[in-house]
Amino acid sequence: QVQLVESGGGLVQPGGSLRLSCAASGFTFSMYTMHWYRQGPGKERELVAFITSTGTGTAYADSVKGRFTISRDNAENTVYLQMNSLKPEDTGIYYCNAKRGAVLTYWGQGTQVTVSS
Prior knowledge:
Radius of gyration: 13 Å
Shape: globular
Distance between the termini: 40 Å
Largest sheet: 7 strands, mixed
Structural class: mainly beta
Helix content: under 10%
């Protein structure tokens, strides 16, 4: 069955770094655009970053540009989110998402990121 399993979340101080991973299985990973979303306390889920199926194209929310980097390893069926210079407003549950076309989409269960001193 399809699985997206996020890991790497945790508690970090402002200015710190975390690297999130999302391991995919049960579908042809290399054919899907991959996304990271987050949902902060009392906020709606928002798109943080995405990467094309081949990894040649990326895009970021303005709030994370220059601090976050999305990457993927199609041989390992894994997508990453490197998060640097973390701020308290980056706190939230981070979700991995796979999309292909307008219909096929899969979600992970999420990993908690807390930025606090």
